Amino acid sequence: MKRRFLLTFFGVCLYASCLMAQQKAISGKVTSSDGNGVSNVTVIVKGTTRSVQTNADGSFSIQAAPGETLIFRAIGSGETSQVVGSGNVYNIKLMGSEEAIDEVVVTAMGIKKEKKALGYAVQDLGSEELMKNKTANIVNSLAGKIAGVNVTQTSGGAGAGASIILRGGTSLERDNQPLFVVDGVIYDNSTGVNGNSLFDGASSTNSTYSNRVMDINPEDIENVSVLKGPAAAALYGSRAAAGVILITTKNGKEGTASVTVNSRLLSNWANRFPEYQDQYKRGFYQQDGKLMEGDATATMGSWGAKFGPNDQRYNNMSDFFKSSVSWDNSVSLSGGSKTGNFYLSASDFRQKGMLPGTEYNKTTVRFNGQQNYGILKVGANVAYSSADQLSSLTSGGLYGYSGEGAVQGAFIWPRDMDMKHWLNDDGTKYRPFNWQQVTEDFDNPYWVMNKMPRTDDTKRLTGSFKAGIDITDWWDLNYTVGIDRYMQKTSRFTEPGSGVSQIYQKGLLSENDNDFQYISSNIMTNFKKKFGDFDMNLLLGSTAEMTSIEYNGRKGWNFIIPGFYAVTNTALTDRALAQQKTKKRMVGFYGEYRASYKNYAYITVTGRNDWTSTLPIDNRSYFYPSVSGSFIFSEFIPQNDILSFGKVRASWARVGKDASPYVTNTYVVTPAEYTLYNNGTGVGVRNDWLRGNRELLPEITESQEYGVDLNLFGNKLGLEFTYYKNRSINQLMQPRTSQATGYILMWTNAGEIVNNGLELSAKVSPIKKEDFRWDLTLNASRNKGKVENLLPGMDVLYVTDVQVGNAKAASFNGGNFMAISGSKWLRSPEGHLVLNAQSGMPQSDGLVTHEIGNRESKLFGGLNNNFQYKSWNLSFLLDYRIGGDVYNGTDYYMTTMGMSKRSMDREKLTLTGVVKTGENPDKTPIYSEVQTFEYEAGKMYKIGNQDRSGEDIISSYYKDGGAYNLESTNYMTNTNWLRLRTISLSYSLPKNMLSRMKAIKGATATLTGTNLWLWTNYKGMDPETSAAGAGAVGSSSVGIDYNGVPAMAGVNFGLSLTF
Q1: What would the pLDDT profile of 753-766 be if each residue is shown by its tens digit?
Q2: How far is the CA of 516 from the CAs of 247, 545, 849, 857, in angstroms?
Q3: Cβ contact 155:253 at 8 Å
Q4: How far apart are CA 321 and CA 356, in angstroms?
Q5: Three-class DSSP category at 88
């Protein structure tokens, strides 16, 4: 056996050597239709695995034998072929993008494919398009540019994250954001709370948090490919349910090494503030009509007297949010030879926040390298990033409110109080109500920002090593091993004397360490052959993954030595510890078979089987298949001036999502704060509240997708239509169970999500001349998410901690996935308000589970315009959304405190409705004729046995718990908006000027504006909002506006030089 193997091995080597002996060096240059060199064009010897990429000026060199065919492919451009003859130099001109019917895109596992061969929708963006509205967070750069991609920029805070959803949510209680893959290695994009919220008090609603894809330097990205549907992402199996975003970073090119320096100066400001009243001062009117005002009232509510002509009004809100200045600098060095290339970069981003003392700083370093040794190719990349965020509490959380939140406080701070007065001359805290308990203080926002900081320090290292061997011209083998690891340290500090619980009056410090590590191994082999008119390709592979997360938290309060803030400076009885470790392993085998006939009929079949450690032993193996195909019908239509290209496509796929670690078992746990509850004596362990389930199944998403792609009028207009239907079953959830079992919650499978959607993408060049060109791209999307088959008796499901007043983010059985639940006024069968017979106030109907709105937009998308005139370029992106309800929780809170614009109308209150006068024999109520109750300021009214002033009645109507707030829809808006997301003007030095500069190869200056204009019917802040930040667990908190940092508008000037 050994001898036979050696003979076979030497035979293969001899065969390969004979082939190489016939080959010769082929070189040339690839140019575009305007004569400029095109970089990053893939040059492939047809029928082999030999390939190279063009360098910065479009030149290339590759080994090929006479008679072989060279294929030239560029992502987003056309394909051209050239047969090798006796010559050694071939200069190629690629078709323009409007003529590109053989466009190449990056698909699952990083495989480049002709777009015309795909049976599903894939869209991608190159580095040039991404950099037109460059942001620190690459997710924001996708907004409005790709159909079916819904990006929500959650906050204007420094380092704020963004959420991204592809074609609606697929999980009721799990993360619905897509899988990110960078250079073939899965890249964690965790969002939300950095730490254990039950331990340190941090919630996803009271501060600004990042999402971890922000750790990537956007300048390093060459291409982003979005696999929107399960069929496109099927090779990722258990990770494919929410779609996949593939990021490819830059490589060096053959030729002289080049250095590129980029620098940007950014200025940002708040684009919108909530509407507020500026007519009334702090105070309130008693029942007898007496005005209570001044510090003696101990109130922050603005229910007092009107401002007089000589009264001072302070601009607390606008003074608190300052314009910020940021710097973004990067440098890269790249180069290569005929056999290898390298890319080295470093960047530094410094962002000052609009809130006092807040900032976000990020530094990155990256190295990518490749080298060919004959038939062996090796490559490696490594990236390091350090991100530091300094923030503070923005709100006190969504369950009620406290004086902790800085933004929350700034929005309701009375106009007759100077918010800048927050310290006494001796540096101690200024307390306007210094006679009351400190625990009852409503802390000044400046105190919160300066004395209650929150820090997040993340160090991240990612890398991979790749090796590939071209065994023959039709068989290759590739192996990739990768790692993604980051260590995150967070701290939460509360200054002694803050308005917090009595136990923390001498200060509190909470520190958390998170250590995340993901290691993967992927081996893949590919066979491709041509049999007559058939091209066939078989891909086989296997992956192994291990994820481990370790969390350690420590907390101390009541500092012994004043001014020395450390957990060790507390008594043992005033400390608490928390620790958690999780590990997960997954192994998968996958395959893909592709076949085409005469370049007009294509079919792809994939299959993947995953084994995961998080599911029960009997249920941990699952198979995920897909099938897709496309047919180019234009090949059978005579050539005409209307239809240039036409394709129909269809796909079906089944993908999944496995469980979180350890949900199959039930555990005993150590409570986080035994020392707190037991005066330091401690106890042992207790049963967990959550019961495991050894019969859990993975979530399964089945998808159908149908589409038509058309190129019209000589390929000048391109259209892509897509319809899809996704059904996600076996939802992993933890509903309440009978406490007789000894538990509160229990893991189970129940519920389904059904998403139906339409997508349209259009590309057109209305004007194309030698010196002037106008390119326009439009995308439009609609998704409708419904929930079905929840557990018996479960009409509504709440996942996130998003609640303001009686309004909550929810999913309804048989209703909308992204719903809002709330309370309503009681109404008669005829629809009249049922009023209290004595006060005339509306009443609640007793339910808080009404489905009062749907946060999902009816239509969303973007319109991207690009104008090129010689060396000048002007581009702008319009982003729009039609429909989708937004709950204005910020206005709710401001109304209860007398600061909203709607609370300004307090001179007269008129209420019209019916009152209950009796009951019928069947207990149904009898109502009176329609009545009207009126109350005016300055008058007294008899209500029951009480005399009450009009001012007291009217203010009580709006205050927390008042009758006005029993109708949650009072704060709802069915929102439409159109915004100028970005506008950018750039100028590049022309070639004739650069030719006179020996050192400079390229120079571009850019002026960019972001969010400079917004039209909307929404009266709150920016309608693009998410109260719980960038997380997308379940139906998320998109569409809930609650005391967030206002969105930013800004301008920036950039300069790019290449040497």
Answers
A1: 999 999 999 999 99
A2: 21, 14, 39, 35
A3: no
A4: 8
A5: coil
Helix, strand, or coil (residue 567): helix
One DSSP character per residue, 990-1015 reads -HHHHTT-SS-SEEEEEEEEEEEEEE
When computed from its CA atoms, the radius of gyration of the chain, rounded to whole angstroms, is 32
Q: b/e string for 299-331 if b means 16 or more Cβ within 10 A?
A: bbbbbbbeeeeeeeebebbeebbeebebebebb
551: CB partners within 8 A, 6+ apart: 195, 196, 512, 513, 514, 515, 578, 579, 580, 581
Q: What sign does the CA torsion over 632, 638, 642, 644 have?
A: positive
pLDDT at 128: 86
User: What's the pLDDT score for residue 209?
Assistant: 78
Interatomic CA distance for residues 873 and 888, integer angstroms: 39
Distance, CA of 539 to CA of 129 (rounded, Å):
32
Q: What is the pLDDT of residues 415-454, one digit of tens each?
A: 999 999 999 999 999 988 877 888 888 899 999 999 999 9
Helix (H, G, I), strand (E, B) or coil at 896: helix
What's the token pair of residue 870?
Answer: 């010689």
Q: What are phi and psi of 621, to 5 degrees?
A: -110, 125
Please report the domains of the chain, with CATH numbers, ordered by start residue.
21-93 (2.60.40.1120), 131-271+324-447+461-583+597-659+696-722+744-889+976-1058 (2.40.170.20)
Residue keyed to tokens 């203080």: 441
Residue pair 500/508 in contact by the 8 Å Cβ criterion:
yes
- Is residue 820 within 8 Å of 1035, Cβ to Cβ? no
Task: Determine if residue 109 is left, alpha or beta; phi over 0 gives left, psi from -120 to 50 gives alpha, anything else beta.
Answer: left
Is residue 11 pLDDT above 60, yes or no? Answer: no
**Helices of type H across 813-900:** 889-896
Residues 715, 101 contacting (CB under 8 angstroms): yes
> Residue 1019 has which token pair?
């009266």
The pLDDT of residue 539: 97
Q: What is the spatial distance between Cα 982 and Cα 1049, in angstroms, rounded to a whole number?
A: 10
